[in-house]
From TrEMBL:
<dbReference type="InterPro" id="IPR005475">
    <property type="entry name" value="Transketolase-like_Pyr-bd"/>
</dbReference>
<dbReference type="InterPro" id="IPR029061">
    <property type="entry name" value="THDP-binding"/>
</dbReference>
<feature type="domain" description="Transketolase-like pyrimidine-binding">
    <location>
        <begin position="321"/>
        <end position="486"/>
    </location>
</feature>
<feature type="binding site">
    <location>
        <position position="180"/>
    </location>
    <ligand>
        <name>Mg(2+)</name>
    </ligand>
</feature>
<comment type="function">
    <text>Catalyzes the acyloin condensation reaction between C atoms 2 and 3 of pyruvate and glyceraldehyde 3-phosphate to yield 1-deoxy-D-xylulose-5-phosphate (DXP).</text>
</comment>
<dbReference type="InterPro" id="IPR009014">
    <property type="entry name" value="Transketo_C/PFOR_II"/>
</dbReference>
<keyword id="KW-0479">Metal-binding</keyword>
<dbReference type="Pfam" id="PF02779">
    <property type="entry name" value="Transket_pyr"/>
</dbReference>
<dbReference type="InterPro" id="IPR000399">
    <property type="entry name" value="TPP-bd_CS"/>
</dbReference>
<dbReference type="GO" id="GO:0030976">
    <property type="term" value="F:thiamine pyrophosphate binding"/>
</dbReference>
<keyword id="KW-0784">Thiamine biosynthesis</keyword>
<dbReference type="Pfam" id="PF13292">
    <property type="entry name" value="DXP_synthase_N"/>
</dbReference>
<dbReference type="GO" id="GO:0009228">
    <property type="term" value="P:thiamine biosynthetic process"/>
</dbReference>
<feature type="binding site">
    <location>
        <begin position="152"/>
        <end position="153"/>
    </location>
    <ligand>
        <name>thiamine diphosphate</name>
    </ligand>
</feature>
<dbReference type="Pfam" id="PF02780">
    <property type="entry name" value="Transketolase_C"/>
</dbReference>
<feature type="binding site">
    <location>
        <position position="372"/>
    </location>
    <ligand>
        <name>thiamine diphosphate</name>
    </ligand>
</feature>
<comment type="similarity">
    <text>Belongs to the transketolase family. DXPS subfamily.</text>
</comment>
C-alpha cells in the first residue's frame, strides 16, 4: 500500500465543471491537493515532474475560468500536462503515466476530449490554437483557443511564425507564456534575456494590462495595472510596446503564476475583454512546492521513480555507460586533438552528452536553444568556414531540421557531422519521441554518409571516423540507454567508409545488422545454433554507402539473408533490396528478408516491450531467418514457451 496524500478538495472534483463551482479560496486549496497528487503519482511512475509542478495553479485557474473542453486548452510540448490530466477525469489512471497500456506522458487526442491537440515536440501550440480560432470563426462548434507555451519553447522559430500570423489575423485568442526561466538546462539566447528584462523593468512588481483590461479587475490590482500600463507606455520609445505588442498581441504581465489572487482576475478579465490576440506573461518556478525538484540542476525536469520524503531517485540497473555518455566522452577526446571541432545542441546539452565536451571546451560548444532548424544551418555555416561541427540532435527532433539537412548541408556537400541520439524506440516517451525515420530520411540524400553503431565501441569508432571525414556530411545513429558493457579504449579507430564487418561466420543463414540490434542478432544466432543452424552475423556499419561486396558475399554463401534495423521501413533494408533488385540478384537461390519497425506507431512501454510489439525480438529474428531458409524448428527456441 503506497502513501497517498490527503486531498479532500480534489477528491470532490470529478472534472472541470466541479472546479468552476469552487470559490477562489477553495481553488487555492485544490491547487495544493493537485500538487500533492502529482508528486505522489510521479514518485511511482517517473516523468516530467518539474514542469508539471510549475503549472499547478495555472492549470486550476485556466479550467476555472475557461469553458473546457469547448474552449481548447493546448499545452506546448505538453510534458507539463499531469495536473491537467488529474483534473480532467484521468486521476484514476494517473499512476499509469508513461507505463505500458497507461496514460501517455503527453496530451493525446485519443485519450480525452480535454486534449484537443497532441504534442511532445515543442513550439506547436500557437499554430494549433490559431487553427482552432479560425475554425471557431468559420462556425465550427468550438470556443476560444488558449495556448500555454514555456519560455524555452517560445525560443523556437515556429512560435514566431505563428505569432506573426496570429497578429496579422487579429482574432481573439490567448497565449499564456509560462516563464520559469528554465528549459531543460538554463535557457540560452537573446529571447531569454529579453523575457528576463520584462521582469526586471522599472515597473517593479507592477503588471502591465492591455488597454481596457484593468477595469474588470478588483480595486488594488486594477490601480496597479493602470499605473503599470501608463509607466510602460511612457517608457516606450519608437514602437508601441513589448515585442509581443509589436507582433499584434495585447500583452498582459508579468504576473505571479502561483498566486491565485493574480491569476484568476487577470484570466477572467482577459476572457471578458479580449477582442484580438492576447499574450499573458505568467512567471512560475519549475518544480514549485517540492524542494528536491526546485533545487536540482534541471529543476526535476525528468525524473525516475523516487522516494517522496528524500527525493532520491531509483538508479539504472546497468553499470555500462550510456551511448550518450560514450558519445560525449569520445567527442571530447577528438576535440582535444583538433581545435576546429565544435559542437551544436538544440537545448539538450546533457541529453546529447555535449555537456561533457563543454566542461573542457566551453567556448566550442553552442547551445542554440530549441531551434533544430537553425542548429543544422548554423553547423553548415561553421563547416563552410572550415570548422568541423558535430551537430548532436535526437533522431525525432532532427525531423524538424530536415529541409535544412537537405538544402543547406547535403546539397552543398558540407561536412557536418550529425550525431543522432535516441535512434530507435525510446520507451516511456512513446511514439512522439521514437527515432524511427532517420535512416530513411538521411540515406535518401545524395552526398550523405549514414552509419549506425552496433555497440558502444563502434560508436567510438564512428565519432573518430566522422571527425576525420571532410568529404561531405556524415551521420551516425545510436540508441537511448546503456551500451552492452564492453571494455572501451581511450580513443576509437577510423573505420573505412562503406565497409561493414563480419562478427561471426556461419554457413546456413546470415543476419545483416545495421545498428544496436546487433546484440539481439547475437541472441537470435545463439538460439539458432542451439537448433544446429550455422549463422553468420554481419555488422553493416553503413547504410550509405552500402558495403555491396559484403552483401553479395552473404548472398552467395547462405540460404537466407535477413537485414535487421531499429528503424522504419524505407531504411537500411530498403537500401539493400534496392541495390540487389537493380542487379537482378533477388531472384537467386538465397532468400532475402528485411526486419524493420512495422508501418504503425508503437505505444509507450519499456523499450524491450516496444520491440516485442514491433516484432523485432531475437525470437522474431530467428523465426524469420529459419522460415526464409526453409529450415524447421526442431524445438522452441530458448525463451519461447
Ligand atoms: C522540437 C523539440 N526540441 C526539443 C525538445 C526537448 N524538450 C522538451 S521540453 C524542453 C524544454 C522546454 O522548456 P520550456 O518550454 O521553458 O518548458 P519547461 O520545461 O520550462 O516547463 C525541451 C528542450 C522538444 N520536446 N521538442
Ligand atoms: C519532453 C521532452 O521532449 C524531453 O524532456 C524528453 O522527454 C527527454 O528525453 P530523454 O529522457 O530521452 O532525454
Ligand atoms: Mg521554461
Amino acid at each position: 500500500m503506497t502513501n497517498r496524500p490527503h486531498t479532500p478538495v480534489l477528491d470532490a472534483v470529478a472534472g472541470p465543471a466541479d472546479i468552476r463551482r469552487l470559490s477562489d479560496d477553495a481553488l487555492a486549496s485544490l491547487a495544493a491537493d493537485v500538487r500533492a497528487e502529482v508528486i505522489s503519482a510521479v514518485s511511482e511512475t517517473g516523468g516530467h515532474l518539474g514542469s508539471s509542478l510549475g503549472v499547478v495553479e495555472l492549470t486550476v485557474a485556466l479550467h476555472a475560468v475557461f469553458d473546457t473542453p469547448r474552449d481548447k486548452l493546448i499545452w506546448d510540448v505538453s510534458h507539463q500536462c499531469y495536473p491537467h490530466k488529474v483534473l480532467t477525469g484521468r486521476r484514476d489512471r494517473i499512476r499509469t503515466l508513461r507505463q505500458e497500456g497507461g496514460l501517455s506522458g503527453f496530451t493525446k487526442r485519443a485519450e480525452s476530449d480535454f486534449d484537443p491537440f497532441g504534442a511532445a515536440h515543442s513550439s506547436t501550440s500557437i499554430s494549433a490554437a490559431l487553427g482552432f480560432t479560425i475554425g471557431r470563426d468559420m462556425g465550427r462548434p468550438t470556443g476560444d483557443a488558449i495556448a500555454v507555451i514555456g519560455d524555452g519553447s517560445i525560443s523556437a522559430g515556429m512560435a514566431y511564425e505563428a505569432m506573426n500570423n496570429a497578429g496579422h489575423e487579429g482574432r481573439r485568442m490567448f497565449v499564456i507564456l509560462n516563464d520559469n526561466e528554465m528549459s531543460i538546462a538554463p535557457p540560452t539566447g537573446a529571447m531569454s534575456k529579453y523575457l528576463s528584462s520584462l521582469y526586471a523593468s522599472p515597473m517593479g512588481d507592477l503588471h502591465k494590462m492591455a488597454e481596457g483590461f484593468e477595469s474588470a479587475l478588483p480595486g488594488p490590482i486594477r490601480d496597479h495595472a493602470r499605473r503599470a500600463r501608463q509607466l510602460v507606455t511612457g517608457m516606450q520609445t519608437g514602437g508601441s510596446g513589448t515585442l509581443f505588442e509589436e507582433l499584434g498581441f495585447s500583452y498582459v504581465g508579468p504576473i505571479d503564476g502561483h498566486d491565485m489572487s493574480q491569476l484568476l482576475p487577470v484570466l477572467r478579465s482577459a476572457r471578458t475583454r479580449a477582442t484580438g490576440p492576447v499574450l499573458i506573461h505568467v512567471c512560475t518556478t519549475k518544480g514549485k512546492g517540492y524542494a528536491p525538484a526546485e533545487h536540482s540542476a534541471d529543476c526535476g525536469h525528468g525524473v525516475a521513480k523516487f522516494d517522496v520524503q528524500t527525493g532520491t531517485q531509483a538508479k539504472a540497473k546497468s553499470n555500462a555507460p550510456s551511448y550518450t555518455k560514450v558519445f560525449g566522452s569520445a567527442l571530447t577526446v577528438e576535440a582535444q586533438q583538433d581545435p576546429n571541432i565544435v559542437a551544436v545542441t538544440a537545448a539538450m546539452p546533457s541529453g546529447t552528452g555535449v555537456n561533457i565536451m563543454e566542461e573542457r571546451f566551453a567556448s566550442r560548444v553552442f547551445d542554440v536553444g530549441i531551434a533544430e532548424q537553425h542548429a543544422v544551418t548554423f553547423a553548415g555555416g561553421m563547416a563552410a568556414s572550415g570548422l568541423r561541427p558535430f551537430c548532436a540532435i535526437y533522431s525525432t527532433f532532427l525531423q524538424r531540421g530536415y529541409d535544412q539537412v537537405v538544402h543547406d548541408i547535403a546539397l552543398q556537400n558540407l561536412p557536418v557531422r550529425f550525431a543522432i541520439d535516441r535512434a530507435g524506440l525510446v520507451g516511456a516517451d512513446g511514439p512522439t519521441h521514437a527515432g524511427s525515420f532517420d535512416i530513411g530520411y538521411m540515406a535518401a540524400l545524395p552526398n550523405m554518409v549514414v552509419m549506425a553503431a552496433g555497440n558502444e565501441l563502434e560508436l567510438m569508432h564512428m565519432v573518430r571516423t566522422a571527425a576525420a571525414y571532410d568529404d561531405g556530411p556524415i551521420a551516425f545513429r545510436y540508441p537511448r540507454g546503456e551500451g552492452v558493457g564492453l571494455d572501451l579504449p581511450e580513443r576509437g579507430n577510423v573505420i573505412e567508409i562503406g565497409k561493414g564487418r563480419i562478427v561471426q561466420e556461419g554457413s546456413d543463414v546470415a543476419l545483416l545488422s545495421f545498428g544496436a540490434h546487433l546484440s539481439e542478432c547475437q541472441i537470435a544466432a545463439d538460439q539458432m545454433a542451439a537448433q544446429g543452424v550455422s549463422v553468420t552475423i554481419a555488422d553493416a556499419r553503413f547504410a550509405k554507402p552500402l558495403d555491396r561486396d559484403l552483401i553479395r558475399q552473404l548472398l552467395r554463401h547462405h540460404k537466407a539473408v535477413v537485414t535487421v534495423e531499429q528503424g522504419a521501413r524505407g531504411g537500411f533494408g530498403a537500401m539493400v533490396l534496392h541495390d540487389l533488385a537493380n542487379d537482378g540478384l533477388l531472384d537467386g537461390r538465397c532468400q532475402v528478408r528485411t526486419m524493420t519497425l512495422p508501418d504503425r506507431y508503437i505505444d509507450q512501454a519499456a523499450p524491450a516491450a516496444m520491440y516485442a510489439d514491433a516484432g523485432l525480438t531475437a525470437v522474431d529474428i530467428a523465426a524469420t531467418a529459419m522460415q526464409a531458409a526453409g529450415l524447421k524448428l526442431k524445438r522452441s527456441p530458448v525463451g519461447v514457451a
